[in-house]
């Protein structure tokens, strides 16, 4: 059984001290990076995508696929409750927001138009994640 830890709590100034301005805008202010701008779109190595805010493992490279949207996309998060989902009613529509379970940072949204085996598309902001290559 895995333990559920409370989210990391930091003040806005503490987050600004540890994140780049773009990471802060996306992770803490629920922003979105421009499509096609993330170097993680081209990341093809084996490894793990982790939260840029706290380092929590979020997605395994074998769950990544090319969705054609311009953002890194995955069909499922890594096991162990890595992410949480929340209703997002911004932009005059209802979507499902995805956040890091450890620091509550905004990662992106999940949609029901992904590939099997889940049928889900976790459309993530690359700036909200770092990549850790396997074996390095």
From TrEMBL:
Keywords: Metal-binding, Oxidoreductase, Zinc
Reactions the enzyme catalyzes: L-methionyl-[protein] + [thioredoxin]-disulfide + H2O = L-methionyl-(R)-S-oxide-[protein] + [thioredoxin]-dithiol
Domain MsrB: 12-134
Cofactor mode of binding and number, as noted: Binds 1 zinc ion per subunit. The zinc ion is important for the structural integrity of the protein.
GO BP term, pick one: protein repair
Cofactor: Zn(2+)
A molecular-function term among this protein's GO annotations: peptide-methionine (R)-S-oxide reductase activity
SUPFAM superfamilies associated with the record: Mss4-like
A Pfam entry, by short name: SelR
Domain of life: Bacteria
InterPro entries: Met_Sox_Rdtase_MsrB (IPR028427), Met_Sox_Rdtase_MsrB_dom (IPR002579), Mss4-like_sf (IPR011057)
Protein family according to the UniProt entry: Belongs to the MsrB Met sulfoxide reductase family.
Protein name: Peptide methionine sulfoxide reductase MsrB
The organism of origin for this protein: Notoacmeibacter ruber
Lineage of source species: Bacteria, Pseudomonadati, Pseudomonadota, Alphaproteobacteria, Hyphomicrobiales
Gene responsible for this protein: msrB
